[in-house]
Amino acid sequence: MKLRFFGATRSVSGSCHVVETLSRRWLLDCGLFQGLSPDMYERNALLPVPASSIDAVFLSHAHVDHSGNLPRLVSQGFTGPIYATPATIDLCSILLADSAYVLRSQTTMLNQKRERRGLAPLPQLYGEDDVAQTLRQMRPVTWNEPFAPCAEIEVVFQPAGHILGASIITLRERGDLPVTLAFSGDLGRRGDWLLAAPAVPSGAQHVILESTYGDRNHRPYAYARSELCKSISSTVQAGGRIVIPAFSVGRTQRMLYELRALMASGDVPDIPVFVDSPLSVKASEHFIRHAGTCALAVPVVGTPAWMNCTYITDGAESRALLDKPEPYIVITAAGMCEAGRVLRHLARNLPDPASRVLFVGFCAADTLGRMLQDGQKQVRIAGETVHVRAAIDYFDTFSSHADQSGLRQWLAEQPGVRSAFLVHGEQEQSFSLAEQIENAGSVEVVVPFSGEEFILAPDTIEECAG
Ligand SMILES: [Zn+2]
């Protein structure tokens, strides 16, 4: 078996790895590179291998840094199946459509700049038609049921506990010297109220392991919950509102579950909660639809049992919310505050010293979210200067990624593993995890570069020359 790295190497976006056996070629994920770098268009336009040479794609989960370049692959001639869980397919239907929409406005802006420099316009990476065709090529797979896409390998998807439908994918080569490779995708956390704990694959000699939080451990959920209770309670007492910027898929639903449980136990005052984002509302519907794949007996968000929660899609209703009497909680997108309805809630509430903005996820450098997390007292929203007088909190504890000890534990529970390739982390995170794993035992660790290629044998790995 041969493994070539392409995206999410020494960085966190563009997850995509090429696996080859004697006569077949597959991709693990086909994600979009994200960020503000000027060469982002070229990076996403370039595919690791000719699209028509790929037999199939195995997709770990729906986040666009894992799925977002699939329509590009299809537009360039990939006609094979894309294997994913039913929940991942449903979430892709909204996230890829949204991605095409975002790409359209990004391409327009890019071409305006190019025109000013006398350069020819670039075509959009992909459009709605490519998304529709991508969804037609998706094939649902069931967790823990091995299947054989061809005579050369057997594949099994297992729960990764990261977001709805997220999977660990294990490829078992058939033959005299069979090699088994497990791909963690994005690995979730144990002790999660919402999703099942990550499965531990059996029989893998080699793993591709994410390392987003390879250099640190999260504080326990219980700590975050008690801090969350304090923040919300004091804001309610002061008569303020609480704005929670959150990613539409995963983090929004996590916060709904947390709030519902904390209100049910009386730890947080029983106040109205609004989800104000069309994408978040659609994503929540898929969580309800696939509730059977969720973990524990936590009642499903959106059932009549929890009447506090109102989902808002209509723009006028969203604007009307700004004038509702306090206090209330609004969960809104985008999580990094770079666009979306979160902007109107921030413009309305940031100047109010009684209100509070609760960040529950990572915000990249140069985003409005990061500026607020960093304590800026004045920001620009829709061309206007806004003074920040509201309280700002940041909880990284609600992350849907395993931390360093979770990643190490997952690996330690697979005693047959000979080598681990660390991906999906900035260099600092990957190297820190690599050091910990190497110090602990017999696993050979590689932090690959894009383009590096390895031959995997049952007991060894060998880097290809060139
Ligand atoms: Zn993810």
How would you characterize the overall build of this protein?
By secondary structure, this protein is an alpha/beta fold. The protein folds into two domains: 2-216 and 400-463, 4-Layer Sandwich (Metallo-beta-lactamase, Chain A); 221-394, 3-Layer(aba) Sandwich (Rossmann fold), CATH 3.40.50.10890. It contains 13 helices and 23 strands. The chain has helices at residues 40-45, 64-67, 70-75, 86-116, 128-136, 221-237, 251-264, 278-289, 315-321, 342-349, 368-373, 404-412, 427-440, and strands at residues 2-7, 16-20, 25-28, 56-58, 82-84, 138-140, 147-150, 153-159, 167-173, 180-183, 206-210, 242-245, 273-276, 309-312, 329-332, 356-359, 378-381, 384-387, 391-394, 419-423, 444-446, 453-456, 461-463. It has an eight-stranded mixed sheet with strand order 6-5-4-3-2-1-22-23. A seven-stranded mixed sheet has the order 7-8-9-10-11-20-21, covered by helices on one side. A hairpin with a 4-residue loop joins strand 2 (16-20) and strand 3. The chain is globular and about 70 Å long. The two termini are 18 Å apart. The model is unreliable at 296-305 (pLDDT under 50). The structure holds zinc ion. Zinc ion binds at residues 61, 63, 162, 186.
